[in-house]
Amino acid sequence: MTTPAPTPKWVSLDATSGTLEERAARRRAFLRVIDEPVIRLTSVDLEATAWGLRALSPSQVVNLTPALRPRPGNAALIAAGTGLGMAILFDDDGRRHPSASEGGHQDFAPRDEDECALLLWMRNMIRLRRQFRVFGRGSMELLPCATPPILAWIRRWEEDLVLCVANLSRTPQPAELDLSEFEGRVPWELLGFTPFPPIGRAPYFLSLAGYGFYWFELRRA
């Protein structure tokens, strides 16, 4: 009777942090404590996930595009998270073998004027969030508003104050906000760096387009 060869055990090892020497030392130390006759190491989590795909039964797979029938050949595993993780499964006579890839090297360039405009807008949003630390570290205080589709809140961090107002309706909406706590400050609209009228004791009036929003830095006069 022939004894079947042991099935390799796959282990995902963190090999992304530290220097090359530190990573190599971790790998050697890991091999010393693992007492298995057959073992393969992978430093890429998506590659380990791709190997697991081969163990799935047809009942565990959901086809998101029923009109398109699966075809033989190469395949790819894509997992969007903090980055774009990817693994390639290359076809070898009907059997797919996973291989690591680096999704961070992939580039999805804008293809038309609308996508170019969206890219510029997103870059501007990211630039503003980096410039104003209040968006990442500040507290959030909701402001009452009589107009139901209007959502308004204040972001605070140390001396920084930012007023955010958003219209959740597709139609234009008015907004009256009680900003008397910030009397004397001047709202500066952050997308165009345009000053608005100073805040007084009376309710502050704004008009927002459908799905429009404002970010104001409340500066001292």
Describe this protein's structure:
- The chain has 221 residues and is of the alpha+beta class.
- It has a domain at 133-219: Immunoglobulin-like, CATH 2.60.40.
- The protein is built from four helices and 13 strands.
- The protein has helices spanning 20-33, 45-53, 113-131, 134-137, and strands at residues 9-12, 39-42, 75-80, 84-92, 95-100, 139-143, 150-157, 160-167, 173-177, 186-189, 194-195, 204-208, 213-219.
- Strand 3 and strand 4 (84-92) form a beta hairpin.
- The radius of gyration is 27 Å and the shape is elongated.
Uncertain stretches: none
Tell me the Rg in angstroms: 27 Å
**Percent of sequence in beta strands:** 25-35%
Task: Sketch the major β-sheet.
Answer: 6 strands, antiparallel
Taken from the alpha-carbon principal axes, the silhouette is elongated
Q: SS-based structural class? A: alpha+beta
Average pLDDT, all residues: 81
Number of DSSP helical runs: 4
Series of H and E elements: EHEHEEEHHEEEEEEEE
Give the fraction of residues assigned to helices.
Answer: 10-25%
What is the architecture of the domain at 133-219 at the second tier of CATH? Sandwich
